[in-house]
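for the writeup, i need someone to sanity check this before i put it in the appendix. the sequnce is what the collaborator sent (i think, or maybe the updated version? ugh). structure was predicted straight from it, no edits. if anything looks off just tell me and ill rerun, i have time this weekend
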Amino acid sequence: MNIVVLETLLGMQALEELGNVTFYDHTGYEQIVERTRDAEIVIINKCRMDASILAQLPRLKYIGILATGYNVVDLEAATRQGITVTNVPEYSTDSVAQMVWAHILNIVNRTGFYSHENRLGRWCRNRDFYYLEQPYMELAGKQMGIVGLGNTGMAVARIAQAFNMNVVAFTSKKEPGPGIRSVSLDELFSTSDIVSLHCPLTPSTEGMVDAARIRTMKPTAILINTGRGPLVNEHDLAEALKSGRIAAYGADVLSTEPAKSDNPLVPLPNCHLTPHIAWASAESQKRLVGICIDNVRSFLAGNTRNKVN
């Protein structure tokens, strides 16, 4: 069995027990066909396997995605060719929820600002035992609005409740959970102090946070996005951040990654970006690789798990 890993993570050498494996650290779109022409199994993360690529790979039987999202593969084309596609669900729930709160706490407690100032000697030069140039906000009693109440959204909600926040959610669930109130999208954005995006990227959610939506938010509101960059109209958001229409944005994702130097969000002081690492804790990566290899093992045994097409 010829297996090609187009984007390799630590620990994937265990695949060598299952076949003849070729590993690549990184693969560009133009390299995919050349590297996978003889492969029966391909493991990818962000490599785009569209219909034109798949049509050139008649030997391919299986695509294993090292991620939960599977929009990088044309599922209809894969199904037509008899290619099984699997993903890895739920491996990073706790890590992503943790990153959400890292962004929130950095913004409301100003930890990054004060840490930077003190590295420059600000505290050493201060007359008093403290200085308070940028006040911080107490979370207790504030409203947390969660768009999409899947596994990660629920994990974020539980942490919000631990901070004694009121939690509302826009969700398809009939019973959103203890202490969580289901509301319309309009009510969630207009009444929440913090909004966190956890919905999938679909034609109906792409650009859902635009100028019109932002105008309904509190000027003190904080927006968090660890879902997908294109959920947000980045130009509209940048204008809102510059004008003070909303207070801050914390995100682990952008519409184009890696970030482009002309992205209007990148230089803004009230925009706090991490480089798409919410999924990548050591523990999360270990789970990801383990489940991916188990998916391949199950496929070879005729008992496919985590199939998405």
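Residues 282-300 form the longest helix (19 residues). The two ends are 22 Å apart (CA to CA).
thx in advance!!
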